[in-house]
Write a structure and sequence with these properties.
Blueprint (H helix, E strand, L loop, with lengths): L1 H19 L20 E3 L11 E7 L10 E6 L2 E2 L3 E2 L8 E3 L5 E6 L7 E7 L6 E6 L8 E7 L8 E8 L2 E2 L2 E2 L3 E7 L2 E8 L4 E3 L11 E8 L5 H5 L12 E15 L2 E3 L1 E3 L3 E6 L11 E6 L4 E5 L4 E2 L3 E6 L4 E9 L5 E5 L9 E6 L4 E6 L5 E5 L14 E7 L5 E4 L4 E2 L2 E5 L7 E12 L2 E5 L6 E5 L6 E2 L1 E2 L5 E7 L4 E6 L5 E2 L3 E4 L7 E7 L3 E3 L10
Parallel strand pairs: 2-10, 27-34, 35-44
Antiparallel strand pairs: 1-45, 2-7, 3-4, 3-6, 3-8, 5-7, 8-9, 11-17, 12-13, 14-15, 15-21, 16-20, 17-18, 18-19, 18-26, 21-25, 22-23, 22-26, 24-25, 27-30, 28-29, 28-31, 31-32, 31-33, 35-36, 35-40, 37-38, 37-41, 39-40, 41-43, 42-44
């Protein structure tokens, strides 16, 4: 009974409140407290790639500085494929092929102490050559230009020939095979393969087939073409007191079908090369050979015989050969001074070329002097005490800024007076990025790489300044340039290229959109996370 009375009392009180409205929040709209729901969707900028502080701008060009497409570049360090040259995404690059822009961009693996690398460069219709690339970056260049100039097989001062024969039984020749590379009846290089010689590959295994092709590339010993085609590094590792100066060089190769012959058994191949007529009778001459696989020169013990304007030797293997004489090492080094005029902002290439050798370097914009070869490294670079060369300054599109015309002494200092052959302008490029699904969310694109090129010329990498803008230097005023941006993994929408028409010095801003991920919660994008 008491329970029921309490229940009735409670009901009465509740009814009273309901009827009078006193202390009631019932205004006809029932209040429901907020419950859990989905978080808001926000757009998030993609992660910014790591900044690159140093890149190598590889360019493969011909003698007119035109880009060479489909050239193969192999990177070798200490005689083996490189493991420290990487692309801008960190992938190891041991072999790369150029596209129509004639080049590509690489860098050095993070943490590597690699100071130099050898690039072995080849292309159809050109002489294969190796180049030594100094990565020590002594001038603190953020972009190191590495321009590899190849020489066409039809260049004056060169002669090439290939002799085909079916005089082979298994792996042994059955008759003499001779290849003579001559110009206007004058022999530059002759290779004679005797009958009864057994042909082998690099591992010493017999190479059998039904036909052979013996090819020879010879050079005029008095022409600078000789030095333009010889693989670099002839004096690398030279521990003597004297420089080796190439007297005569030639490339000799032999194919059985499509297989390269590298060695012989049972006999040797005789090589005869044209030589300068001013060689001293009985002068001591030595032979070195170049291995394209390792990128290294090695000494041979072949005896060299002097003839009337010739040198000859017998070899048990095939490759590039250089017959060399000894000369006193230059103790002054090789440097240049800009006595008037100015090196433009984009810098200039320097070449010193003669029949005795060649040296190439790069002079940064605004420099007034440059140590091309230090006194401590003249032996390595083959500079001897009486070395002379034709010295040129030229830009990356082939414009000549200085030319000594004749050979001048390069053991010591050379004065330069660069003169601009064209009106050049520099352009500042600012890249901006935003998410396509939220234009208010910025994407940080300052760690991209930018390259630009004029039609037919090799691509050049732009230098990024301290403000994250890109400097396009040495543009020929009024010319058109194609610009390519590598966003290094950022998901750009649409093309990553554009064209600058009628180049001028006005600053340019180029905007791009990116596919950005979404996330729930948080406060949205912050304009990049780099």
């Amino acid at each position: 009974m008491f329970t029921n009375k309490k229940s009735l009392l409670a009901l009465s009180v509740a009814s009273a409140f309901a009827l009078t409205g006193c202390f009631s929040d019932d205004d006809g709209n029932d209040y429901t407290p907020p419950g859990p729901g989905p978080d808001p969707v926000v757009v998030v900028p993609p992660q910014t790639p790591t900044e690159l502080n140093f890149i190598v701008n590889v360019a493969v060009v011909n003698g007119d500085s035109d880009a060479i497409a489909d050239a193969t570049v192999r990177f070798v360090e200490n005689g083996v494929p490189s493991t420290n040259i990487v692309d801008v995404d960190g992938n190891v690059v041991q072999t790369a092929t150029t596209t129509e822009d004639g080049g590509f961009i690489v860098t050095v693996k993070s943490g590597s102490e690699l100071s130099s690398v050898t690039a072995v460069v080849s292309a159809a219709g050109f002489i294969t050559k190796s180049f030594n690339v100094d990565l020590s970056n002594e001038d603190e260049l953020s972009v190191l230009p590495a321009q590899f100039q190849l020489t066409s097989t039809d260049t004056a001062g060169l002669a090439s020939v290939a002799t085909a024969s079916t005089d082979i039984d298994g792996a042994t020749t059955t008759a003499e095979v001779k290849a003579d590379a001559a110009v206007s009846g004058a022999s530059l290089a002759t290779a004679t393969l005797p009958s009864g010689i057994t042909l082998q590959n690099a591992a010493g295994e017999a190479v059998t087939g039904d036909s052979i092709s013996l090819s020879v590339v010879g050079t005029d010993p008095t022409s600078s073409t000789k030095s333009s085609v010889i693989p670099e590094g002839l004096n690398v590792g030279n521990t003597s007191a004297n420089v080796l100066v190439p007297v005569s060089v030639a490339d000799v190769n032999l194919l059985v079908g499509d297989t390269k012959v590298k060695k012989f058994a049972g006999d040797t191949l005789k090589v005869t090369l044209a030589a300068p007529t001013d060689l001293a009778a009985g002068e001591t001459l030595t032979v070195k050979s170049f291995d394209e696989e390792t990128g290294l020169w090695s000494a041979d013990d072949f005896a060299v015989t002097q003839g009337a304007g010739t040198v000859s030797f017998a070899t048990n293997h095939l490759t590039w050969f250089a017959v060399n004489r000894n000369a006193n090492t230059c103790t002054d080094g090789f440097s240049v001074n800009v006595t008037s005029g100015t090196i433009p902002a984009g810098g200039l290439y320097l070449s010193a070329l003669s029949s005795d050798g060649s040296v190439a370097s790069f002079i940064r914009g605004g420099a007034t002097s440059k140590t091309v070869v230090s006194a401590a490294t003249t032996l390595r670079y083959g500079i001897y005490d009486g070395a002379t060369a034709r010295v040129r300054l030229f830009d990356r599109e082939g414009g000549t800024w200085f030319d000594s015309q004749t050979e001048v002494g390069v053991c010591g200092s050379v004065d330069l007076t660069p003169v601009a052959p064209f009106t050049l302008v520099n352009k500042e490029l600012t890249l901006t990025g935003a998410c396509s699904n939220d234009a208010d969310v910025a994407v940080n694109v300052t760690n991209s790489t930018v390259s630009f090129k004029r039609a037919g010329k090799a691509a050049r990498a732009a230098i990024k300044d301290a403000n994250g803008n890109f400097q396009l230097t040495n543009l020929r005023e009024g010319e058109n340039y194609d610009v390519t941006v590598n966003f290094r993994g950022l998901p750009v929408e649409g093309a990553n290229t554009f064209t600058i028409e009628g180049a001028n010095a006005d600053a340019l801003t180029q905007a791009f959109q990116f596919t950005c991920p979404t996330s729930t919660g948080g406060t949205g994008g912050t304009g990049g996370n780099g």
